[in-house]
Write a structure and sequence with these properties.
The complex is a heterotetramer, with two copies of chain A and two copies of chain B. Helices cover 32% and strands 25% of the residues of chain A. By secondary structure, chain A is an alpha+beta fold. In chain A, helix 2 runs antiparallel to helix 3. In chain B, 40% of the residues lie in helices and 28% in strands. Chain B is globular, with a radius of gyration of 13 Å. The N and C termini of chain B lie far apart (34 Å). The mean pLDDT of chain B is 94. Classes of the chains: A alpha+beta, B alpha/beta. Strand 1 of chain A pairs antiparallel with strand 1 of chain C, so a sheet runs across the interface.
Chain lengths: 146, 116, 146, 116
């Protein structure tokens, strides 16, 4: 989908405490893009959800040494943010032990829905060597929603 | 960057949990502990003061919703006080602003709660 | 000197506009270390100087595709921040065309002095493949200055 | 994150350069342009309003010092107005707080400069 090479890459341990570092980097990266304050904050929230999703999968897999990578391509008209981890994706979605609530807010699907509400496109794919990549796309031209 | 949560109880037994900073996958467990402590201490309703919270992610939402569920099971309520625009945004986008009782301040919540 | 492996790594183009992204990441990284507000800001400034030094060398070399890497190891007692670039180091310091001022504030040596005033240790070494690495070390224990 | 520089001139011909945001290797060329514009427009002295600057690196220092040199060559002065603690820190660490004329506000500088 993209031909441009990623301009900024941030690698960190796939632990909850590093998610705020990733979010701050997004703030720095998008701060100069032609986006409103709210659009930048939406991106920051979407990236936070993507990272939280990786962190949760790493914790569930008991993977202490998992790594998280943010890859960002930011230009005048398009922002692509990829959140990648190396946590093996379980073969089938695990049954939720709790079906009491309408929505489980720690459910990965809920995070995905939230990301979809915040950016223009969300793509999730498994990586050949295990792990997962969430790609968030945001178009910068105002009122160009899709 | 600094995050803190504190809790105290009002005369009528309602618990007040005050959060400062960003509520995310790292910090939300601390919010959960304090909410549970307040329930365990006998509060059926809680006021969560979000006036100093700029960021709330789905981990935070999950904990608030879990609290709401527990409160309502015991005839109580969760009041979200003083939400800033960004926090309101997350609540609106998820429709949760219609699920919680939204108030402008802790005092308004105390008034509403009466002898909760 | 260090045995721990770098925990966070940020790669960006070696251009002036990305220095603020690196500084924000440092804020995120050090925000939870046992440092005062002023100590964190000093580190942020020191890293900014290190990056500016790389950016200036890349600009002087006309290297548009140069890359900048921040590597950070942060623990309870020690923060090590490495700023690395791939800009070939000129064999000998180039003579400054302007010797009118006592200090040239764009002079690399001035940046180094400033970094030395802001952190506990500054090490600069040329890399085998060309490029340069500035290592900034800060001890977290209060009044343990050296 | 937003950076801006603007300039205007007071009655007595002194130029005022107002900066908001972080002055670093990326943004400092814009400060330099506006300072030069003011000199070219006939100001011999400049007031640099730093009240909204949180960050100033050696690139910014270099431009201020270049401006000071140019101002003094023509019998003028550079006033640094309203420096916040972090900016003061950089000036102190480099000893430049003793080289520039430090004032608390633009108005104080205008008063000091008189008919500059
Ligand atoms: N993150 C969450 N998202 C949605 N529901 C949750 C979450 N955490 C807990 N719950 C649910 O909310 C309810 C209250 O949870 P909890 O506060 O742990 O109290 P308890 O374990 O005493 O019932 C439980 O039924 C639980 O299943
Ligand atoms: N970053 C800098 N650090 C130190 N001195 C500088 C810097 N930039 C310019 N100078 C010096 O300051 C003086 C004024 O520079 P400038 O404002 O470019 O005016 P001009 O070119 O008209 O003399 C010059 O002598 C120049 O060598």
């Amino acid at each position: 989908m993209l031909v441009t090479s990623p301009v900024v890459e941030l690698r960190a341990p796939c632990h909850a405490e590093y998610v705020s570092v990733v979010r701050l980097a997004v703030l720095g990266l998008c701060g100069r893009a032609p986006l409103s304050y709210d659009e930048v904050e939406d991106l920051r929230l979407a990236v936070g959800e993507g990272c939280a999703s990786s962190v949760q999968r790493a914790a569930e897999a008991g993977m202490d040494d998992a790594r998280l990578t943010l890859r960002a391509t930011v230009d005048e008209s398009l922002i692509v943010l990829e959140i990648e981890d190396d946590v093996p994706v379980p073969p089938a979605p695990e049954p939720l032990e709790q079906a009491v609530m309408d929505v489980d807010f720690n459910d990965q699907q809920f995070r995905v829905s939230l990301m979809q509400l915040l950016v223009d496109e969300v793509n999730i794919e498994g990586l050949p060597g295990g792990g997962q990549c969430i790609r968030l796309t945001k178009h910068c031209v105002a009122s160009d929603g899709q | 960057m600094d995050f803190s949560v504190s809790a105290d109880r009002r005369e009528n037994g309602i618990g007040v949990v005050t959060i400062c900073g960003e509520v995310d996958v790292y910090t939300s467990p601390r919010v959960r502990s304090l909410m549970l402590e307040q329930f365990d201490a006998g509060s059926t309703s809680l006021i969560v003061d979000l006036a100093k919270v700029d960021y709330l992610d789905s981990s935070g939402l999950g904990i608030l919703v879990a609290g709401l569920k527990r409160a309502r099971e015991h005839g109580g309520e969760i009041y979200l006080a003083g939400c800033k625009p960004r926090v309101l945004r997350v609540l609106e986008v998820t429709g949760l602003n219609r699920v919680f009782t939204m108030v402008s301040s802790v005092d308004e919540a105390v008034g509403k709660a009466g002898g909760a």
